[in-house]
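Example 9 (inverse folding). The structure is encoded as follows.
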């Protein structure tokens, strides 16, 4: 079969546009989680930055390594919201106490960690790579 260069070029353009279009459509068809107050979570991200939690903790494996990764702390068995609040209030030998943090900032921070937890898992054993190259949860 003899494909002309122009035909091949047009074919590749169509493939490129179709793929790009499908990628950009994905967020529209992805269901929003109504259990998360997204504005609170966005403010929580700013609180996370303000108090520099990232200097000791990782999110999605990135950050400081003095403390543990907090991506899935919200849903981890035996941890969750009460433990997050307790650590923020009291800290421990290595972690500073943030007892002076205003209540609304603590609530926003907790919402941010809840949202981070729902966004995915840092445990690569639970990853599946689909035929399109996207990483999905098993
Ligand atoms: C100076 C470094 C440091 C900073 C800054 C820091 N932490 Fe920590 N954090 C630690 C260490 C170390 C631990 C582990 C303590 C332990 O298990 O003994 C920890 C533990 C935690 C835990 C419990 C984790 C678990 O798996 O038990 C939470 C939740 C937490 N930190 C939240 C935060 C938040 C939120 C901030 C920002 C407001 C923050 N930390 C800032 C060092 C830090």
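The amino acid assigned to each position is listed next.
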């Amino acid at each position: 079969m003899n494909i002309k260069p122009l035909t091949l070029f047009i074919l590749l353009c169509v493939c490129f546009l179709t793929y790009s279009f499908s990628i950009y459509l994905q967020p529209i068809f992805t269901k929003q989680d109504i259990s998360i107050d997204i504005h609170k979570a966005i403010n929580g991200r700013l609180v996370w930055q303000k108090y520099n939690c990232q200097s000791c903790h990782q999110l999605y494996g990135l950050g400081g390594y003095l403390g543990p990764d907090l991506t899935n702390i919200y849903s981890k068995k035996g941890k969750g919201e009460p433990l997050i609040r307790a650590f923020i209030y009291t800290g421990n030998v290595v972690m500073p106490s943030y007892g002076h943090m205003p209540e609304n900032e603590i609530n926003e921070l907790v919402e941010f960690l809840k949202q981070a937890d729902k966004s995915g898992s840092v445990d690569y054993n639970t990853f599946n790579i689909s035929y399109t190259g996207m990483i999905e949860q098993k």
